[in-house]
Amino acid sequence: MEGALSGIRVLDLSRLLPGPFCTMLMADMGADVIKVEDPGPGDYIRWWPPKIGNNSGFHVILNRNKRSLTLNLKSPEGRKIFEELAATADVVLEGFRPGVMKRLGLGFEDLERANPRLVYCAVTGYGSDGPMALKAGHDINYLALNGVLSFSGRDAPTLTGVQIADLGGGGLLALSGILAALLARERLGRGQFVDISMTHGALAWNCLRWGKFIADGEVPAPGDDLLNHGFACYNIYRTNDGRHMSLGAIEPRFWTAFCRAAGHPEWDTPRYFEPGDHQESLRKSVSEFFSTRSMAECVETFGGSDCCCEPVLNLAEVLDSPDMQAGGYVVEMMHQSWGAYRQLGIVPKFSLTPGSIRSHAPELGEHTQAILEEMGYSQSHIEQLRQNGAI
Questions:
Q1: Taken in order 160, 166, 170, 176, is the CA torsion positive or negative?
Q2: Which of 94, 165, 347, 382 is packed most tightly, with the most Cβ within 10 A?
C-alpha cells in the first residue's frame, strides 16, 4: 500500500540532525526525498564515527528511504539543475543560515516564481530574522536561551540524552509546519514559506512550567517541582546493582498501588502530593527501599502492580525489548555491503497508508545519474556536468 505522502517530492538541502530527521519521517511516509549534497564532503554527518561500511551510523539511521543527488550550487549548472527540480517539487527544506539561499538565487521568492505551489521550509537556530538570526548555535545554546535548561536536572541545569531543540523544536515542528502548509495549499492553491526556529520552537516545550509561573510568579529552578525531581512520587531511584528505576506514581491510585507493593502503607498519605520539606524525607525513604534491591527484584516486585514503576533500560535492552519488537519499532535489516544491522522502526502507525522502510541510507551521490536521467539529461551531458564539477 502507498504511504500517506506518496506522490510528494521533497528536496532536502539540510545536514546533520534537525532537517534530516524531518525528511526521514516524510520518506517513511512515502515521500520521494532527494537529499541534495555537495559533491565534496556531502552531509557532514556521513563521516562522524563510528561507521557502518563507508558511512556513519548516524547517517544510516537518519537518511533511509532517501535518494542522494550531488550538486554544486555555487556553479551555474548546479543551480540550474536545482531550479528545474524545484519547479516541479512540492517541498524544499534547508538548514543554512538566513540569506545563504537568497544569495545563490535559490531563495523562496526566487523559486516560487516558477512554482507557486512550492512549500519552502527553513530550519535555523534563531529564525530567519531578529537580532540573533545570523548567530551560530547548537542544541545546548537553544535550550539555554529558551529556558528549558534552567529548570532541568536535580540540583543544576542538566543536559538531556536527546537533542530537544534539534528534534522537537526543529525536526518535528518542521514536519508539522510542512504538512500544514501542504494542507493549506489544497485550499489556497499556493505554497508558502515555513520559518522554523529551533530556539523558539522548543520554547513551547516550557508550556507547563510557563503556566505555573504565570499563576504563582515563582521562577522555575532544578529540583523544585513535581516533574523535575521535586517530589518523591515522580523520580528516578538507584538500585543496589547500580541500575535505576523510574517512578511516576502521580495519581492517588498509582501511589497507593506502589506503596502497597513496596510494603510501606505508611507512605500513602495526602501529603505525598503536596510540596514542602517533607518531600525530601519521603524521597529518602523511597530511595532507601530501592537501594536494598536489584533492578530485577524491583521489576518482579512491581511488575504485577499498576503503579507506573518501570526499569531504566539501556539502549541495548531497548532493542531487545519484547514491546519494541512486537510493535515493529526495531527492524532487522540486511545490507549488501555492511551486513545485518538494526534500524529504527516506523512511527506513526497508519491503518490505511502504513509507512515502510524501502531502502537503506544512500551512498554520497548514489542516485545522481538516475535522477538526472529522469529529468531528461543525456549521458554525454551528465558526463560533462561531472567534469565541470557541477555534480
A1: negative
A2: 165
